[in-house]
Amino acid sequence: MDRDDREDPFGDFFAEIERMMNDMASGEPGTEDAGFGSATHVDAYTTDDGVRLIADLPAVSKEELSLQCDGEALTISAVSDRREYDETVDLPAPVDEHSANATFNNGILEVTFDRDDDSASIDLE
Question: What's the pTM value of the predicted model, to 2 decimals?
Answer without folding.
Answer: 0.64
